[in-house]
C-alpha cells in the first residue's frame, strides 16, 4: 500500500468526516471482521475496484465486490446488504432494505428534485404528517438535512440503505412520478372519460382524451411490466375505482397493493396495453382476451395473457404472467415426491387413455400439463391441444384456440384434431357432455388424452363425469389416472427458523390413521429482505395421484359411492392432499397453516 493510502487502523472515537475506504476498513479491523494479515491486500483490491469503476461508485459497493468472508462466526460473506446493515449498527441508525411496493413515489418525489436526491445520494421513502424518512448511504454527509426539514416542515428520520438501491430507485421513482403527473395534467382530468355507472355530467370540461401512445403512458406501462417481473408477480391487476385506480400484484398467491394512479391515467394505460395485445381499444362494454409477448431486462421472453372486464367504474384489466422457464422444470422441481413422479411418468407414457388433472383456478394445473407435454413432445409424436384460451404458446405443440363466436367449441376442436393424425391430445377443460364424449372417443381410438376438471379431489372427478352424463362403462374403459393438486407457499430458505415440535393434536388431526412420524422440528416464517418480510418465497405443489386399477373400475357404476372410491384409491397407493401437505411440513418446506388453508380434512 502506498503512502497516499495509509494502512487502516482501529476506528477512532471521533466521528469521521466521510465514509471512505479508510474508515470502512478501520471499522472492519476493529470489529474483527477482517484479519490484520489480509487487510492490506483487501484494501488494495477495493481501491482498484473503486478506481476502475463508475465515477459515482460508493466505497461500500467496492468493498462488497471484494467478496470478503467475515473472520467472525458464522463466517458469512459480506455482501452489500450485510455491509450496509453492519455500517448502520456502527453509526447508530436503522438499516432498511427499500421495498418499492411500500413507497408512494409520487408523494415522496414532491419532497425534493431528482437532481437534489442524486447529488446527496439520498431517497425519501416515507412521509407522515410529522416525519420524513430518508434513506442514505452517506451517514456523515448531512448538510441537506436542515434544508429538507425546513422545506418539508417535518422531522427527518434517517435510515441506512444500499447505495445501489438508492441510485436505482432515484432513477425510477422520480421519472415515473414525473410521467404520471404529466399524463394526468395532459388528460385535462376529464371525468366523462371514466365511463362508470356513477358518471357526473360536468359542463365546460375539455373533452380531451389521453393518447395511448403518449410517451408518458408508454413509460408507465413499461415500468409496470419490468417492476412486476422483478417482484416475481404472477398476475397484474389494474382496477378502476371512483376517483383513483389501483394497481395490484399477486406474488406467491397473495395480492399486494402496489400503487394508485389517477383514473384517467389508468384509462390510458389500459388502452395502451389493449393496443399492444391486439384487442379492440374502442370496445369497453364486453369482456375481451388478448396476449402480449415481451422481454425482461435480462432478455428472457415472457408471455402475458390479458383479460378485460367491464365494471361499475370502467374496464378492469388482469394480466397473467407466464414464465416459459416453468415448462422446462422437472416433476420433482414442481413438488412431486419421487414415488408420485414415477407413477405419473408411467401413466403419461401409456399409448392411450384419459388422464385428468383437477383443482381450483390457480392451482397449477396448466403448469403440470405443459411440463408433462413438453417432456412427451419429441420429434416422433404429434402433440395437439385445444384450449380456451391458449395459455402459453409452445412451439413443440400444435395449439388451437376455442372460438365460440364461430361455433368452434372444445368438442368441435377435438373432432377436428382427430383428423390430424395426433398421438397425444390435450383438451383445456372438460366442461360439458359433448367435450367428455369426444375425449372418450379419442381415447377409445388409441390416443392419449390429457385434460382438466374443476373438482376438490381426485375421486370426485369420476362423480363429476358421471353427473355430466358419461356412461360408467366408458369411464371404466378409458380413464387411467387422475391427479388433484394445490399450491402452497414455501418458507423462505434465507430466514426460516425452527419452531420446536408440532402439537400432537394438530399432527394427529392432519394425518389421522396414516402412519407418518411426527417431525422432530418444524419451521416457521420469519421475514427478511429476500422474501419482502413475508417469510415465504415461491410456491410448490402438493399432489394426490389416483391410478385407476381393476378393483377401482369395478366400483364405478350407476350407484357409485365416492367414499368407496376414495378408500380403494388409498389402497391402490393414492396419498390424499392433506397427507401430501403433511409430508411437506415434515420436510421443512412449508407450514401447517399453509397446508390447512388449501386442503380438506381426511375423510
From the structure above, extract its key features.
603 residues; 22 helices; 18 strands; disordered N terminus
Walkthrough of the structure:
- There is one protein chain.
- The strands form 4 sheets. A 7-stranded mixed β-sheet has the order 12-11-13-14-10-15-18, sandwiched between helices. The chain has a 6-stranded antiparallel β-sheet with strand order 6-5-4-9-8-7, with helices on one face. Strands 1-2-3 form a 3-stranded mixed β-sheet.
- The chain has 22 helices and 18 strands.
- It is globular, with a radius of gyration of 29 Å.
- With 603 residues, it is of the alpha/beta class.
Write a short abstract of this structure:
This protein has 603 residues and is an alpha/beta fold. The chain has helices at residues 21-30, 36-52, 59-65, 80-91, 105-109, 114-120, 145-152, 163-186, 215-230, 263-276, 331-334, 338-348, 365-376, 410-417, 433-444, 459-468, 472-478, 504-511, 550-553, 562-571, 577-586, 592-598, and strands at 122-127, 131-136, 155-160, 235-240, 244-251, 254-262, 288-295, 301-311, 314-322, 353-358, 383-387, 398-401, 424-427, 448-453, 479-491, 497-498, 523-524, 536-547.
Amino acid at each position: 500500500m502506498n503512502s497516499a493510502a495509509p494502512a487502516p487502523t482501529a476506528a477512532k472515537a471521533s466521528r469521521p468526516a466521510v465514509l471512505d475506504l479508510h474508515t470502512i476498513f478501520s471499522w472492519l479491523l476493529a470489529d474483527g471482521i477482517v484479519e490484520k494479515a489480509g487487510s492490506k491486500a483487501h484494501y488494495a483490491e477495493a481501491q482498484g475496484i473503486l478506481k476502475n469503476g463508475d465515477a459515482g461508485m460508493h466505497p461500500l459497493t467496492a468493498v462488497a465486490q471484494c467478496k470478503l468472508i467475515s473472520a467472525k462466526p458464522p463466517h458469512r460473506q459480506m455482501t452489500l446488504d450485510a455491509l450496509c446493515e453492519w455500517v448502520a449498527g456502527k453509526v447508530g441508525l436503522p438499516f432498511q432494505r427499500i421495498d418499492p411496493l411500500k413507497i408512494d413515489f409520487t408523494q415522496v418525489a414532491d419532497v425534493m428534485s431528482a437532481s437534489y436526491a442524486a447529488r446527496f445520494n439520498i431517497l425519501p421513502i416515507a412521509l407522515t404528517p410529522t416525519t420524513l424518512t430518508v434513506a442514505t448511504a452517506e451517514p456523515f454527509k448531512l448538510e441537506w438535512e436542515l434544508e429538507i426539514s425546513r422545506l418539508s416542515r417535518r422531522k427527518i428520520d434517517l435510515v441506512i440503505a444500499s447505495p445501489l438501491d438508492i441510485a436505482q430507485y432515484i432513477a425510477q421513482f422520480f421519472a415515473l412520478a414525473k410521467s404520471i403527473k404529466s399524463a394526468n395534467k395532459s388528460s385535462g382530468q376529464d371525468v366523462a372519460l371514466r365511463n362508470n355507472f356513477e358518471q357526473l355530467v360536468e359542463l365546460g370540461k375539455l373533452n380531451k382524451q389521453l393518447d395511448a401512445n403518449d410517451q408518458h403512458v408508454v413509460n408507465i406501462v413499461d415500468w409496470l411490466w419490468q417492476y412486476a417481473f422483478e417482484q416475481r408477480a404472477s398476475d397484474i391487476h389494474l382496477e378502476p375505482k371512483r376517483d383513483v385506480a389501483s394497481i395490484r400484484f399477486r406474488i406467491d398467491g397473495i395480492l399486494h397493493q402496489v400503487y394508485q394512479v389517477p383514473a384517467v391515467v389508468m384509462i390510458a394505460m389500459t388502452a395502451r396495453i389493449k393496443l399492444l395485445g391486439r384487442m379492440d381499444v374502442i370496445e369497453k362494454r364486453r369482456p375481451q382476451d388478448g396476449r402480449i409477448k415481451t422481454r425482461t431486462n435480462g432478455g428472457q421472453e415472457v408471455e402475458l395473457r390479458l383479460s378485460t372486464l367491464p365494471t361499475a367504474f370502467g374496464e378492469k384489466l388482469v394480466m397473467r404472467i407466464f414464465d416459459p422457464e416453468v415448462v422446462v422444470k422437472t416433476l420433482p422441481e414442481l413438488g412431486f415426491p419421487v414415488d408420485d413422479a414415477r407413477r405419473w411418468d408411467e401413466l403419461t407414457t401409456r399409448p392411450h387413455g384419459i388422464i385428468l388433472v383437477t383443482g381450483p383456478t390457480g392451482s397449477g394445473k396448466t403448469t403440470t400439463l405443459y411440463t408433462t407435454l413438453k417432456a412427451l413432445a419429441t420429434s416422433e409424436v404429434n402433440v395437439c391441444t385445444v384450449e380456451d384460451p391458449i395459455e402459453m404458446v409452445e412451439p413443440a405443440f400444435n395449439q388451437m384456440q376455442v372460438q365460440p363466436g364461430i361455433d368452434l367449441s372444445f368438442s368441435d376442436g377435438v373432432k377436428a384434431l382427430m383428423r390430424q393424425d395426433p398421438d397425444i391430445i390435450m383438451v383445456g377443460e372438460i366442461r360439458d357432455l359433448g367435450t367428455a364424449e369426444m375425449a372418450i372417443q379419442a381415447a377409445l381410438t388409441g390416443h392419449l388424452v390429457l385434460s382438466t376438471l374443476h373438482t376438490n379431489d381426485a375421486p370426485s372427478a369420476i362423480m363429476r363425469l358421471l353427473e355430466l352424463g358419461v356412461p360408467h362403462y366408458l369411464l371404466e374403459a378409458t380413464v387411467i389416472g387422475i391427479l388433484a393438486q394445490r399450491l402452497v407457499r414455501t418458507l423462505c430458505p434465507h430466514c426460516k427458523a425452527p419452531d420446536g415440535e408440532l402439537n400432537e393434536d394438530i399432527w394427529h388431526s392432519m394425518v389421522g390413521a396414516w402412519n407418518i412420524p411426527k417431525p422432530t422440528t418444524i419451521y416457521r416464517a420469519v421475514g427478511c429482505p429476500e422474501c419482502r418480510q413475508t417469510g415465504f418465497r415461491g410456491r410448490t405443489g402438493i399432489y394426490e395421484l389416483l391410478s385407476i386399477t381393476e378393483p377401482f373400475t369395478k366400483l364405478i357404476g350407476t350407484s357409485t359411492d365416492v367414499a368407496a372410491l376414495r378408500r380403494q384409491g388409498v389402497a391402490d397407493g393414492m396419498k390424499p392432499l392433506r397427507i401430501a401437505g403433511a409430508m411437506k411440513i415434515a420436510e421443512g418446506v412449508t407450514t401447517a397453516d399453509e397446508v390447512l388453508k388449501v386442503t380438506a380434512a381426511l375423510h
